[in-house]
Specification:
four-stranded antiparallel β-sheet; about 100 residues; alpha+beta; elongated
Length: about 100
């Protein structure tokens, strides 16, 4: 999961985590499809000192996105390329800590 800047979805919550999953890789792709999802943040445990630990919670947004052949050709072997591409296409911003 990728931590992102808050995405407020009225009646659903505030998204803080992004996930991306490739749906297909055809042999000679003219496009590649991905499933994306955004999750709320929730307490998922605590440290030995009793400090809450936070992580992905409830799914609040999801959809599909398609990468064209030209962009796919630039992907190479660095998965950060496709994550950054999807975040930009969807208007989300990665949080770097």
């Amino acid at each position: 999961m990728i931590k992102i800047q808050d995405v407020v979805v009225p009646t659903k919550g505030t998204g803080k985590y992004f996930n991306l999953l490739a749906l297909n890789f055809p042999p000679n792709p003219t496009s590649v499809s991905f499933y994306w999802s955004v999750y709320e943040e929730t307490q998922n445990g605590q440290t030995e000192e009793g400090t809450p630990t936070l992580g992905p919670g409830k799914l609040i947004l999801e959809g599909n996105i398609t990468m064209n052949q030209e962009t796919y050709a630039n992907w190479g072997t660095d998965d950060e390329f496709v994550i950054d591409w999807a975040l930009t296409e969807l208007g989300f911003t990665k949080v770097t800590e």
